[in-house]
Write a sequence for this structure.
């Protein structure tokens, strides 16, 4: 006979799955090789959130207002400060205070793509000296590993060696992106060979055995069906996490909602309920084992 679970049994099973996922994220944080991602993983476990808010607003006031509403629900805030009209040093100071108060890590979506020497200077000097205040920055793989060498040198020069990390773009979400499967495989290989600075990847469907994945192009069913008219392609939170990604980068799906705080919570709960499924927790556990320091056999 088929026995249905009672509501209290279902709640118990959900609580157990929550705890299992929280424990796996915490253990992965302990073993993951990058300090900024350790912090992201610890926050994800604590807040039960793998949501990255892409705060693509136009003014500093809108930015601060959005962070005040949504900050408690996210693990990472992604910024392009150069797209915000009146962003200034005071805005940055306030954002950094909010990051501490509401407990999230900052990613600057710099998409560094030049030769290493130029990237190093951009990282150190552009956008209020990014290397000093953004633990995570994004980089394109197109110019080869020099971009990562430049970021590593920049992190050292800023006194942030072993603290900052780069998120390397292996696949983009936009229509007609040139990041095909061959490119993605090469970018992932490049990332895995440069783990002194690479913290994670931006991917869509192809993932690394080691590095965690962030995925943009996440929206509701209406966005998924229509796109944004400017080439962005969307998939649902469920599709993206089911496909093996770990963190969802969401901008307009949250920002433009009638109630951004509520919408962020809905995305958080949806993503979390998929990630706590057995196969995804098992995949996280495999990564924990891969990163654990290898036991060296004692000499006889
Ligand atoms: P949206 O409003 O959820 O579509 O915003 C997505 C954000 O992610 C936006 O800031 C983009 O610059 C960013 N993004 C992206 O959409 N696709 C990519 O492949 C990469 C970044 Br990489």
């Amino acid at each position: 006979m088929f026995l249905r679970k009672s509501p209290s049994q279902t709640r118990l099973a959900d609580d157990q799955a929550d705890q299992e996922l929280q424990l796996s994220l915490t253990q992965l944080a302990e073993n993951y090789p990058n300090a900024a991602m350790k912090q992201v993983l610890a926050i994800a476990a604590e807040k039960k959130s793998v949501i990255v808010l892409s705060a693509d607003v136009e003014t500093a006031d809108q930015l601060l207002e959005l962070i005040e509403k949504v900050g408690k629900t996210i693990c990472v805030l992604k910024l392009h400060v150069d797209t915000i009209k009146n962003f200034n040093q005071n805005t940055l100071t306030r954002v950094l205070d909010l990051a501490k108060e509401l407990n999230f890590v900052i990613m600057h979506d710099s998409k560094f793509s030049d030769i290493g020497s130029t990237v190093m200077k951009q990282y150190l000097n552009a956008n209020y000296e990014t290397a000093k205040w953004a633990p995570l920055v994004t980089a394109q793989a197109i110019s080869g590993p020099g971009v990562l060498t430049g970021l590593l040198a920049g992190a050292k020069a800023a006194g942030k060696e072993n603290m900052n990390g780069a998120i390397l773009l292996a696949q983009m979400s936009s229509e007609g992106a040139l990041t095909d499967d061959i490119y993605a495989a090469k970018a992932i290989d490049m990332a895995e060979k440069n783990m002194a600075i690479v913290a994670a990847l931006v991917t869509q469907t192809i993932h690394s055995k080691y590095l965690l994945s962030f995925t943009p192009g996440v929206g509701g069913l209406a966005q998924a069906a229509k796109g944004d008219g400017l080439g962005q392609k969307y998939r649902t939170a469920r599709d993206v996490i089911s496909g093996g990604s770990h963190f969802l980068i969401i901008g307009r799906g949250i920002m433009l909602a009638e109630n951004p705080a509520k919408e962020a919570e809905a995305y958080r709960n949806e993503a979390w309920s998929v990630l706590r499924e057995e196969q995804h927790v098992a995949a996280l556990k495999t990564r924990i084992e891969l990163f654990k320091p290898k036991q060296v056999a004692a000499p006889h």
